[in-house]
Automatic annotation (TrEMBL):
It comes from the Eukaryota. InterPro entries: HET, HetReg/Transcr_Mod. Pfam families: HET (PF06985). Residues 51-191 form the Heterokaryon incompatibility domain. This is HET-domain-containing protein.
């Protein structure tokens, strides 16, 4: 079997889970250009584990390693999430945390595992310490939109409705940010609500 063809079942953490268990990953340190490696562990939701759930949009594919096993390609946006978290972990202690990420913590090749974990998803997101979202890499004035969204905005009222007023180029930048593929996903309501 080729190195990149390893199935999730080759990794012992993808064995069948008891009904209240989830998998969590920890991103292992590495150099900028090294492969992304993660440790995966099993935990009971009853034990109130401390973790961060990540929300992102899918994209192209890349390979990562779980407990030394190469994992079939993951989505490129997820690879970017993991790469950024690993890169910033030495500066931001919180990024040394355990993470719940659907594509890694659910055995996508095993129907029963997917069903069981999907039933737990509301609990998984609700119990996460936080659920940061990944809108994708910075481009098309996204820095302007993020700065603008953190500032108080002026509002106008018109016929009982409140309108936020942004001047150009901030309005165009915010419109671009809101047009990203992330917002077209069905699951985002469960993930960020």
């Amino acid at each position: 079997m080729a190195k990149s063809d390893t199935t999730r079942r080759d990794c012992s953490a993808y064995a069948d889970l008891p009904s209240d268990y989830i998998r969590l990953i920890k991103i292992l340190p590495g150099d900028e250009d090294s492969d992304i490696r993660c440790h995966i562990s099993l935990v009971s939701l009853k034990r109130q584990p401390d973790y961060i759930a990540r929300s992102y949009a899918w994209g192209g594919k890349r390979i990562i390693y779980l407990d030394s096993h190469p994992l079939s390609p993951i989505r490129k946006n997820l690879w970017r999430v993991l790469h950024q978290a690993r890169e910033l972990a030495s500066q931001i202690i919180e990024l040394q945390s355990d993470f719940w990420i659907d594509a890694l913590c659910i055995d996508q090749s095993h129907l029963e595992d997917r069903k069981q974990q999907v039933r737990l998803m509301a609990k998984i997101y609700e119990r996460a310490r936080k659920v940061p979202i990944w809108l994708g890499p910075s481009y098309n004035q996204s820095e302007i939109s993020m700065q603008e969204l953190t500032r108080p905005i002026s509002c106008w009222q018109a016929k009982g409705k409140v309108f936020s007023v942004w001047k150009k180029p901030a309005g165009a930048a915010i419109s671009g940010l809101c047009g990203r593929p992330y917002w077209r996903r069905l699951w985002i309501f469960q993930e960020i609500m």
